[in-house]
């Protein structure tokens, strides 16, 4: 199962004491993860000025979809912080549900061309939920900012 999303994406932002929450939707688990990755990109930097000149690949394995989502988002945050990499397009492939391969398309952050929107320390397990409804898949994640 493979999906791709480009920021900006539809996302509901939730106020949370000292943190921020996001609720994202997708047609499939892969689409849900791609939407979450694109929403995270938008939270950290304005994606409209980002070009697809470089790629970062992320591989994650976990015991559950919830754990997979938190690990995936934390790996993206790690790439942003350690490599100063910003992205606007993300492609996600789920191999079975415990394994994910993602590619983030973007470039190194340049303060003259990109607008930073603040840092995210981590995706957390607090109030983490993934489910389905008649419209597809949804997830709620609280991010430590």
Short characterization:
This protein has two helices and nine strands.
Detailed description of the structure:
The protein is α+β, with helices and mostly antiparallel strands and 145 residues long. It has one domain (2-144): Archease, Possible Chaperone, Chain: A, domain 1 (3-Layer(bab) Sandwich), CATH 3.55.10.10. Helices cover 24% and strands 43% of the residues. The strands form two sheets. Strands 2, 3, 7, 8 and 9 form a five-stranded antiparallel β-sheet that branches. It has a four-stranded antiparallel β-sheet with strand order 1-5-6-4, with helices on one face. α1 (29-44) runs parallel beside α2. The radius of gyration is 14 Å and the shape is globular. The model has no long low-confidence stretch (mean pLDDT 94).
């Amino acid at each position: 199962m493979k999906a791709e999303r480009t920021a900006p994406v539809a996302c509901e932002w939730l106020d949370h004491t000292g943190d921020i929450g996001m609720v994202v939707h997708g047609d499939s688990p892969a689409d849900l993860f791609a939407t979450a990755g694109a929403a995270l990109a938008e939270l950290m930097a304005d994606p409209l000025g980002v070009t697809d000149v470089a790629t970062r690949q992320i591989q994650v394995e976990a015991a559950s979809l919830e754990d997979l989502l938190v690990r995936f988002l934390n790996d993206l945050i790690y790439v942003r912080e350690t490599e100063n990499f910003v992205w606007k397009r993300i492609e996600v492939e789920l191999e079975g549900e415990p394994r994910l391969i993602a590619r983030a398309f973007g470039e190194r952050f340049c303060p003259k061309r990109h607008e930073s929107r603040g840092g995210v320390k981590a995706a957390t397990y607090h109030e983490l939920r993934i489910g389905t409804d008649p419209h597809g898949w949804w997830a709620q994640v609280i991010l430590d900012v």
